Amino acid sequence: IQRWAPGAASGEIVAGGKGKGDSLDQLSCPFGLVIDSEGALLIADRDNHRIQRWAPGAEAGETVAGGKGKGDALCQLFNPVDVVIDSAGALLIADRDNHRIQRWAPGAAAGEIVAGGKGKGDALDQLSCPVGLVFDSEGALLIADRD
Fold it and tell me: How far apart are CA 88 and CA 90, in angstroms?
């Protein structure tokens, strides 16, 4: 992950940068990013099926969601591609290939399904490869559903 200051001629590495891999100082196909209240970067590390938290200036990240191989158990993710933070500090994760949105409370060992999770589909209680998340002005979660 590179940080580019306004007007800079080049960026600086703030997370990863040690080649593709699954150790705590590596990422593998990072997608969505969000910054928490402490200035740490939360990264949807897609191919490692985890969310990594990198504190400012850290040499490595820590796994805060997933990281137990790809799967559909509540403690697992399958190609997460976006992450946002709710008003309680919980992570909401677009768990793309599980066709669900998971909510992970701070320090939780597993998430809970808050949208989808009923197989891939186009019914109003299903999702089909969710790829983007944002909260609207009323606090409702908007989900960009790829298919």
Answer: 6
